[in-house]
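input
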Amino acid sequence: MLALMMDRPLTLPSILEHAALYHGDTEVVARSVEGPIHRYGYRDALVRAKRMANALMAMGVKPGDRVATLAWSTHRHFELYFAVTGIGAILHTINPRLHPDQVAWVANHAEDSILFFDITFSDLVAEIGPKMETVKTFVAMTDTAHAPPNVLVYEDLIAANSPDFAWPDLDEKSASGLCYTSGTTGNPKGVLYGHRSTVLHALALALPDAFDLGARDVVMPCAQMYHANAWCTPYAAPLVGAKLVLPGRLLDGPSVAELIAGEGVTFVLGVPTIWVGVADHLDQTGGQLTSVRTIAIGGSAPTASLISRIETRLGGKVRQIWGMTETSPLGVINTALPVHVNETEAEILQRKLKQGRGLWGVEMRIIGEDGAELPRDGKAAGALQVRGPWVSSAYFKHEGAAAFTVDGWFDTGDIATLDPQGYLRLTDRAKDVIKSGGEWISTLDLEDAVCSHPAVAMAAAIGVPHPKWDERPLLLVTLRPGQTADPEVLKAHVAERVAKWWTPDEVRIVSELPLGPTGKVLKRELRARMATGPATT
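output
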């Protein structure tokens, strides 16, 4: 027997329609690429999104067509999030930090028909535009005064088209967005999001034990809108009626701190490198932020010292998350349970080092080398696999099929433990784990140990070849501004905090660590550089 309930599709335009109706004057604030801060309400955003929807239809965009963007987190990009998806087309947000050849490759692989681009990428588009074989139309996301020649202009399209538009009826399972992985191993792979999956994901991450978002909040994603939908916050914020602050292209410490203070931001999110920059800026200026309630950190694991430093300087509480492009991206988030009410400060910090606990919508299991599921005892480490309504079931054009199991799970490539309370603790990426003498050494634990030293800013642990033990750990560290440290002192500092045989053979101070398109340290590049590095007994 079927339920007698209305069958209304879960589609993305309904989110902006809701925000315009019930939170029409709530602001969307964006730092534009031209410089000035742009402000308008959700009601105005809906009008412009409908104008752009009419423009897209006039340009011949059809359901299922891929419309690409090379753009920062701005109000125009926000409008495209709804205008493109709302007509049944697919918004392909290209990561501009990919190598130019990879940018052209993903555009060709996706078979994009139109490219919208911020004027900061005009030279890049001029260089690689001829290599984009299927792109027939280029639109500069600016006004006539700032546009390069021989392209359409976003504001001209807005002005020329009517705001009268009725969103078509869409199947909620139809595709809405396409985002490619960062391509650190081989070519990027496409993850194809849907209306239903994205709406469910936005609802879930707004829950109290997730991002805890409501109309009282001011949300500022410091994950760019080209990366996994800025962790879905451009959909979650209007869904709950929160003010949305989009930082544009400037994610340096001073710029981020200025926007947080000026707009009264209560919720921020981003990768650890963002918050290192903010903390450094506040340290140097003696500044203190007062409005922030929650700082969500993902992308790579923050160290205990960074968590403490962020909470001190930004004033809010850190909630670490784990997720991937393939999980839309929220997989788990670190929130406390009632049993943790009497935790000491030290216990709270240790719990926060775990990536988070299970969230409805994402099932998890840990698989051993023999293919059997491992116990949730917080000790047994194995391959992390996930499934759920906002987890990818296959890559676009069905490439990389090995990541998907025959029984319907996605193999994340992470090595992890699960404890009885449902907390996930990553010990490593499968490709990064150090295997020494047949035993695993956790690079994350080594990095956390050395980063507890007050002079250390960031660290990366990698395995280097060893004639006896196969691999031994090498720690590469960068120092905080104005700090000095002796490598042997840092090595001794680590030795006091990890198993004796885990102690790295060398700690090496470097000026910088190579970062990938999403802010993660490129350990593959480090291993290539250090393949002939020192190895001792």
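quick obs: Residues 42-58 form the longest helix (17 residues).
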